[in-house]
């Protein structure tokens, strides 16, 4: 099957440029801090954050005095990343670019990372190839990706029930499985650590979780704008239902763990 990845990426970009994704993404900062620690970023390392969004991992690397660069195709997210860097007095470079065709020379970075970002590139193999290409031999690759069986994986399944993904595009949560990483990277990367971790979503209520994602998570915001009032009510309840399913709080709030795979590897020469 021939898949028009360029059209898919244009539609994805429009989704991410809808809403205000950093209102969600900023809450995930701890994932980036843990990943940057896991790949042992050192002062002076050249670190690239791929599909950086508002720059969580790039900022985390810069806090450790690395030479940090973030790349993303959504200009509005890059703008907020630059604002965050200025506010925190961190020297981070943000560049517009496609994860499947990174605007950098071969072997440009000592470490390449992505936190729940590169997993959304529609052509998984091209994105993986680019991660390897721009990493120096012996350099590190660090990924944090939602798993198929976790809370976010279930949320994506729920959304797919309302808006099926394009034919021929593999689910992004495959990146959260060791088997898929092996398929994508082969013997070019030695995975030295594969840990399943939980990020804990914390909201006032399941309804608050649903509202927050419908207002700010671009692809969901865009979908919500296409629904009738009755369907929007049902969709809102479906999202709240995901939070209820994983919630472990008993006081009305949401304390819901969502599994992700933290993968650390070394590029072989």
Automatic annotation (TrEMBL):
Q: Which domain of life is it from?
A: Bacteria
Record SUPFAM superfamilies? S-adenosyl-L-methionine-dependent methyltransferases
TM spans (from-to) = none
Domain Methyltransferase type: from-to ranges: 48-141
Listed PANTHER family? 2-METHOXY-6-POLYPRENYL-1,4-BENZOQUINOL METHYLASE, MITOCHONDRIAL (PTHR43591:SF24), METHYLTRANSFERASE (PTHR43591)
What is the name of the protein in this document? Methyltransferase type 11 domain-containing protein
């Amino acid at each position: 099957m021939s898949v028009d990845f360029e059209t898919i990426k244009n539609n994805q970009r429009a989704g991410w440029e809808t809403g205000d994704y950093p209102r969600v993404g900023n809450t995930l900062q701890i994932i980036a801090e843990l990943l940057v620690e896991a790949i042992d970023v050192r002062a002076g390392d050249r670190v690239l954050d791929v599909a950086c969004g508002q720059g969580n991992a790039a900022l985390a690397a810069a806090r450790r005095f690395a030479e940090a660069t973030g790349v993303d195709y959504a200009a509005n997210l890059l703008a907020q990343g630059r604002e965050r860097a200025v506010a925190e007095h961190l020297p981070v470079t943000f560049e517009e670019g496609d994860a499947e065709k990174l605007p950098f020379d071969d072997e440009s970075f000592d470490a390449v990372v992505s936190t729940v970002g590169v997993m959304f590139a529609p052509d998984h193999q091209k994105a993986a190839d680019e991660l390897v290409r721009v990493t120096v031999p012996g350099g590190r690759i660090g990924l944090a990706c939602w798993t198929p069986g976790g809370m976010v994986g279930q949320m994506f399944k729920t959304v797919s029930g309302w808006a099926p993904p394009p034919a021929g595009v593999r689910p992004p949560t495959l990146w959260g499985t060791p088997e898929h990483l092996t398929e994508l990277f082969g013997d070019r990367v030695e995975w030295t650590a594969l840990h399943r971790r939980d990020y804990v979503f914390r909201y006032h209520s399941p309804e608050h979780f649903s509202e927050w994602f419908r207002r700010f998570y671009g692809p969901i915001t865009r979908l919500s704008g296409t629904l009738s009032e009755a369907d929007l009510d049902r969709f809102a309840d479906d999202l709240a239902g995901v939070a209820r399913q994983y919630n472990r709080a008993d006081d009305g709030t949401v304390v819901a763990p969502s599994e992700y795979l933290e993968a650390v590897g070394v590029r072989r020469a």
